[in-house]
Amino acid sequence: MLYSEKVLDHFSNPRNVGEIEDADGVGEIGNAKCGDIMKMYLKIDNNTITDAKFKTFGCGAAVATSSMATELIKGKSIDDALKLTNEAVVEALDGLPAVKIHCSVLAEQAVRAALSDYYTKQGIDPVPIVGEIKEPEE
Length: 138
Ligand code: FES
Hints:
Blueprint: H1 5-12, E1 25-30, E2 37-45, E3 48-57, H2 60-73, H3 78-82, H4 86-92, H5 101-121, H6 127-130
Antiparallel strand pairs: 1-2, 2-3
Helix pairs in contact: 1-2, 2-4, 2-5, 4-5
Bound molecules: FE2/S2 (inorganic) cluster (FES).
């Protein structure tokens, strides 16, 4: 089987799909090569991510990784969310085929883009905290 049970589960039954209307941070990231787009909405209270939702127009692995990423950051501090790597998302999904690893980078960067937007809205320069947001190139 190419995909793990967890990937199939998060693809067919994605968690936290949708928008947060009064989101504190919104990030959108795309992959120019495959054309897939991911949008991440965060609600942040007292440095804690109290809610996360996403919309992904993309492949199955992009849907599954964004679903898992929202599950992993909900209830966590911003610091913990900033430590979320695409490898951690892949691991939580029990792996992804090598050709699909780049899809998980989209999930990692979408979280960072939303946090970046959060800091910008607070009048804080996000770059020293969040770093540059990179559109995946693969
Ligand atoms: Fe584009 Fe998966 S193929 S994100």
